[in-house]
Design brief:
Oligomer: single chain
CATH topology: Rossmann fold
Helix content: 25-40%
CATH class: Alpha Beta
Number of domains: 1
Structural class: alpha/beta
Radius of gyration: 20 Å
Largest sheet: 5 strands, parallel
Shape: globular
CATH architecture: 3-Layer(aba) Sandwich
């Protein structure tokens, strides 16, 4: 069973699991339809994770892959906790009671808190996060360890870095749209670890096929890029000549502050998102699994253009809800 099955990561994961021969039970907040390997669209089961789960909803399920959560939103702290922490723990308890053998929680590197320096971080290099999104993921991880470590429920936690691929949302999408619209070249500085959607799906499928015998946490990441490097890749994908100059850092700091004043900064300021260094190590994952990175953003920068184009063609939505929507993290 996969939660967040109609989202960016969930839809790709369900398709790959079906191709591998698994029987997939997709959950989402609505009965959205996803495409599986048969070519026939499959309706997801509408389940509101913040409510009491229906009796018998996990009967016959061997593995739960929990992707659903609030991401890319300026939500209230209590809403992050309700969806990313409390609903996760409720689902794990339901899974344990139903005899599910393996609970795979897709968390985030944000659960590790803010970096102390520019060095690549391992799974143990953690501090308590000081922003609501990361804190809600950290609380979920901590509660799962405390309650299910040593039980019959096998528990694995995957912390993806920044995920890119066709249909990606968030900071990479916004940067690609900016380059298309004539955004000046940023200066050098800062790096962020990334991972391709296809690579992340392969990691998750591998964990489903061969669950760990003990509680394990892995960082899912591959290469790292600076904002300037991503900018140059997008320009190249657009067929534009490489930009030779750049706008100085102070100008980006002023522009970022103005944008935050107009739109709000969310969990991080715009300047931090663009120029901070957040680099992670995948050494544990490489040593404990056969997975090896296959994709590279430098080889396929067109995925950023596809994400930007998708955003530009999406119709405006007038949907409103008392709860923020559950989305897969990226």
């Amino acid at each position: 069973m996969v939660t967040g099955a109609s989202g960016f990561i969930g839809a790709a994961l369900c398709a790959q699991l079906a191709r591998a021969g698994h029987e997939v039970v997709p959950w989402s907040r609505s009965a959205a339809r996803i495409a599986l390997s048969t070519g026939q669209p499959l309706a997801t089961r509408p389940v509101e994770l913040c409510d009491e789960l229906p009796p018998g909803c996990l009967d016959g399920v061997d593995v739960v892959v929990h992707l659903a959560g609030i991401a890319h939103q300026r939500a209230r702290a209590r809403d992050y906790d309700a969806v990313n922490y409390e609903a996760t723990l409720r689902l794990a308890r339901t899974a344990h009671a139903a005899g599910v053998s393996h609970f795979l929680f897709v968390s985030s590197v944000k659960a590790m808190g803010a970096p102390a320096d520019d060095a690549a971080r391992s799974e143990e290099d953690c501090v308590v996060p000081d922003e609501p999104y990361g804190l809600s993921k950290w609380r979920a991880e901590t509660a799962l360890y405390r309650e299910f470590g040593g039980t019959s429920l096998r528990l694995s936690i995957v912390r993806p870095a920044l995920v890119y691929g066709p249909g990606a949302k968030g900071n990479l999408q916004r940067l690609a749209r900016g380059v298309q619209r004539g955004l000046p070249r940023p200066p050098a500085g800062g790096q962020r670890s990334c991972i391709a959607l296809a690579d992340l799906v392969e990691i998750l499928c591998g964990a489903v096929a061969a669950p760990p015998r003990a509680v394990r946490t892995w960082i899912a990441c591959a290469e790292a890029y600076s904002t300037q490097e991503i900018y140059d890749l997008v320009r190249g994908a657009l067929g534009k000549a490489p930009a030779r100059s750049w706008t100085p850092l102070w100008a980006w700091r002023v522009a970022s502050a103005l944008l935050d004043a107009l739109q709000g900064s969310g969990d991080q300021t715009t300047f931090t998102r663009l120029f901070a260094t957040e680099v992670y190590s995948n050494a544990r994952l490489l040593s404990e699994s056969p997975w090896r990175p296959r994709a590279c953003l430098a080889d396929t920068p067109q995925v950023l253009l596809q994400a930007a184009a998708q955003k530009a063609t999406q119709p405006a939505s007038g949907r409103s809800s008392q709860r923020p929507p559950e989305q897969p993290d990226a």
